Amino acid sequence: MKNEFTKALPPVLTHEGGYVNHPKDPGGPTNKGITQRVYDAYRQRKGLDPRTVKLIEQAEVEAIYKAGYWDKVRGDDMPPGVGYVLFDYAVNSGPSRAIKALQAALGVTADGTIGDMTMDALDAHGDHDALIADICARRLAFMRRLSTWSTFGKGWARRVADVQARGQAWAMGSVGPKVEYIPGAERKARDTEATDRPGTGGADAAIGAGVTGGTGAGAIDQAKDALQPLAESNPFIGKVFAVLVTISAALVIGGLAWRFWQQRKQKAYDRDMTALEADPA
After folding, report:
1. CA 269 to CA 264: how far, in whole Å?
2. N or C: lower Cβ tally within 10 Å for the chain?
């Protein structure tokens, strides 16, 4: 809706807060949700000298948000509530990531660009309330993959819940909850902080070392084979042989436990990736 930008901007700005420069925030120095890098690029395009984002003016804030985020997610073409939800997501994680969540929720190719196929699928989607919930669930799944989740996850989760409640209210023609600043929720959630899928290579290597072995295990097995005939007649060799057997068993047990733990992490990762259904940006 063409008048929804002026309605959507205030709650986004409330969530973004004022000037921050948290050492664990990948966005770096940020004011009203606009990073120094984005502000520098804006002023360069306008032929203006660079300056600290602390001094950004309200007119500049509105211009950057409109062209850089609202228009990128085609907020004017979105149903009530949906545009706001995408807008807030775009400010926090970039327009491409927000669009991919929308496309995944609609079941179309998640390429990060809204075209005719995406708009046709949106027009065919009859439940905007459910669509908003789907987008927000994917947003949260993406955030949980970030290495900064342990630091900012609590604030992010509260922000997403607040955005969902307000978006769904707007979709139903209601006002929604009063927006309040949530400490930490303004931190950028970017793809560059995404963690890789956990692997079981180390665990498999440990198990292999205890059973038949690669490099190190081959040496253990050879030593066991050589010492076994002498183990019964020589107490010292018997003790060495027992130690080698214990080491092999420990490698197997430890490797199995490690593999189990990594497989659990893989399943959690895969659940989030399935929910996200979008290629990395």
Report:
1. 9
2. C
Are the C-beta atoms of 199 and 37 separated by less than 8 Å?
Answer: no
For residue 20, list its beta bridge partners: 30
* CA within 13 Å, CB half, 281: 20
Beta bridge partners of 194: 146
What H or E segment, with its residue span, contains residue 30? strand 30-31
Residue of 163, 9, 177 whose CA lies nearest to 82: 163
Reported as a single tens digit per residue, the pLDDT across 17-56 is 999 887 776 678 999 989 999 999 999 999 999 999 999 9
Task: Find where tokens 């189990």 sit.
Answer: 260
Closest CA to 188 of 22, 18, 8, 40: 22
For 165, the token pair is: 């409640």
Question: b/e for 85-122, b at 16 or more Cβ within 10 A?
Answer: bbbbbbbbbbbbbbbbbbbbbbebebebebeeebeeeb
CA distance 45 to 232: 84
Q: How many H helices and E strands in the chain? A: 11, 3
Residue 79 is classified by DSSP as: P
Positions in the chain whose pLDDT score sits under 70: 1-2, 25-26, 195-233, 237-241, 243-245, 248-249, 251-252, 255, 258-263, 265-281
Strand partners, 35: 30
In angstroms, the CA 20 to CA 191 distance is 20
The pair of three-digit structure tokens given for residue 272, joined into one six-digit string: 């989030």
